[in-house]
Write a structure and sequence with these properties.
Number of helices: 8
Number of domains: 2
Strand order of the largest sheet: 11-12-13-14-15-17-16-18
Strand content: 25-35%
Radius of gyration: 21 Å
Number of strands: 21
Distance between the termini: 69 Å
CATH architecture of the largest domain: 4-Layer Sandwich
CATH class of the largest domain: Alpha Beta
Order of helices and strands: HEEEEEEEEHEHEHHEEEHEHHEEEEEEE
CATH superfamily of the largest domain: Alkaline phosphatase D (PhoD)
Structural class: alpha+beta
Largest sheet: 8 strands, mixed
Shape: globular
Length: 426
């Protein structure tokens, strides 16, 4: 009998239910606040499909619309809440009820209505198999009290623990998103923080994959089910090809790029990292939006020095098209990336661009880390780098008429500061 009970418990754990043991009773569900403005927000809640949950927001006033997203073959669903008529500066309470009993409760707010300052916290590479690391590092991440969280890809290791290694079918990918969402402490935080994300290959569902992944349409649908950033008509948001979008806030532009859906392989001509429609979408917006821009990509931009994936190494011609357009523009940019399982800050300057800016790579917050290859493959652009440490970063930014002032901080385990940089990009 004891052996039977152990087997049943193991099967139960595989469904993701065991993750609830990591949360206090009033934060039993996996909840994420997503796309947010000064009057509007989206929230996604992972739940058993059979559970009929109701949602109450206090104080009264906001309008709430609920849409359930699911795959018929899986017993888990996502309730996607669209909440409007919010007031900036107000702290709201979201209560989740089942059979009239409150089973979860969180607080949330909107973004400020008018500001040129923003604090963001950034992370990537969230392997749910690193259970003990994630339990300690996400609470540290939350102590930074950022206005906005940015997830830089590999937010779910969707191609792991699947039948065909490195290639997930939609049912498997949905299951892996559920397991990750139920486990990670960030989704059980008592106060929600607006979170925006892009993906890389592991949450795309195909290790190293691109335009030939047969389930890219389903992958996009799954991504948008769990990351609450469905397209809206707003001065804050512009939809792009694939999962790409522009978010405009605090006098800054945040371009979240899709580096997988349209990614060509090495033999395709012309080569393309983002696809020509996405390139043209970005180049057009770059000319229209005359303020500082963050370019956010799942893997490194200036990674040609190393043997792993990067825009510069894998798609050199499209990378040169990007640099040419950036040189022609009067707008200033900086680069944010994940993927590499190390922390690295590069200075990007002439001859790449006509001014000095940075690329920040922060990875992994909890995943396998490796020794660096900088001894064998030195990076001439690097101004700081550290390997073999879990890491994340914060950036305090203040925009002005011709650029931005930033304070960048990198952190490791136990909140230890790895690096700090104060820089004016203008």
């Amino acid at each position: 009998m004891k052996q039977i009970l152990m087997v049943l418990f193991a099967v139960f754990c595989l469904t993701g239910c065991s993750s609830f043991n990591n949360s206090s009773p009033d934060m039993a569900l996996s909840i994420l606040q997503g796309l947010t403005t000064d009057q509007y927000t989206q929230i996604s809640i992972v739940k058993k499909k059979s559970d009929a949950l109701t949602y109450v927001i206090s104080p009264n006033g906001p309008q709430l619309k609920k849409v359930q997203k699911f795959r018929k073959e899986n017993s888990w669903a996502v309730d996607h809440l669209y909440i409007s008529q919010l007031k900036t500066g107000q702290v709201y309470k979201l209560e989740v009820k089942k059979n009239q009993e409150v089973i979860d409760s969180r607080t949330f707010s909107t973004l400020k209505a008018k500001t040129n300052e923003l604090k963001m916290a950034l992370a990537s590479c969230m392997d749910d198999r690193f259970s003990e690391v994630q339990k300690s590092i996400w609470p540290q991440f939350n102590t930074k009290k950022a206005d906005l969280h940015i997830f830089l890809g590999d937010n779910v290791y969707g191609d792991k623990s699947v039948l065909q290694k490195g290639l997930a079918k939609p049912s498997e990918l949905w299951r892996r998103y559920v397991e990750t969402r139920n486990l990670l402490q960030i989704y059980h935080s008592p106060h929600l923080t607006p979170t925006l994300a892009t993906w890389d290959d592991h949450d795309y569902g195909n290790n190293g994959g691109g335009e030939n992944y047969p389930f890219k349409k389903e992958s996009s649908e799954i991504f948008h089910s769990f990351f609450a950033q469905d397209p809206i008509v707003s001065k804050y948001y512009v939809k792009g090809p694939g999962i790409s979008f522009l978010f405009k806030y605090a006098g800054q532009n945040f371009y979240f790029f899709d580096n997988r859906t349209f990614r060509t392989n090495k033999k395709t001509k012309p080569d393309s990292h983002w696809g020509l429609p996405q390139e043209n979408w970005f180049f057009s917006l770059l000319e229209k939006n005359k303020s500082f821009s963050w370019l956010i990509n799942g893997n490194q931009f200036f990674g040609g020095y190393q043997q792993f994936e990067s825009f510069e190494k894998n798609h050199p011609k499209s990378f040169q098209r990007l640099l040419k357009k950036l040189k022609e523009s009067s707008n200033r940019v900086a680069f944010l990336s994940g993927d590499r399982h190390l922390f690295e800050v590069m200075e990007v300057k002439s001859p790449d661009l006509n001014y000095s800016t940075i690329e920040l790579t922060t990875s992994a917050i909890h995943a396998k880390v490796y020794p660096s290859s900088w001894g064998k493959n030195p990076n001439s652009r690097q101004i700081f780098g550290v390997a073999e440490k879990h890491n994340y970063a914060t950036i305090q930014s203040k925009s002005h008429s011709n650029g931005v002032d930033i304070q960048l901080k990198g952190y490791g385990d136990h909140g230890k500061k790895l690096y700090q940089l104060n820089k004016k990009i203008k």
